[in-house]
Amino acid sequence: MAVVMFDVDAFEERAAIMEFDGGLSRFEAETAAAQAQGVKRWEALDAVRKSNTGRGGNLGAAMERQRGEDDMPGVQPTSQEKG
Fold first, then answer.
1. How far apart are CA 73 and CA 63, in angstroms?
2. Is residue 30 part of a domain?
3. Is residue 41 part of a domain?
4. What is the dihedral of CA 61, 66, 69, 71, to 10 degrees?
5. Over pLDDT 90: what percentage of the chain?
6. pTM of the entire structure?
7. In terms of pLDDT, which residue wins out, 3 or 14?
8. Do residues 38 and 11 make contact, with C-beta atoms less than 8 angstroms apart?
9. What's the domain count of the chain?
10. Cα→Cα distances 64→24, 59, 60, Å
């Protein structure tokens, strides 16, 4: 079996461009971006997950570091609340 070199950054960029500029759904954009590199969508997303974990990426931990004592998770404060 041939080893496929997968470029996570290229996958994410291509998928984002196809989604926002091309008008594709996120699923369609990720599928097309994965196919462009010769892998299936689930393989690409698994590589992204592993890449983010390897770089110390942990969304939950990042949000905890940024959260104030009165902040509600997932709710962006208005400019008045921030100031």
1. 8
2. yes
3. yes
4. -100
5. 45
6. 0.60
7. 14
8. no
9. 1
10. 32, 9, 6
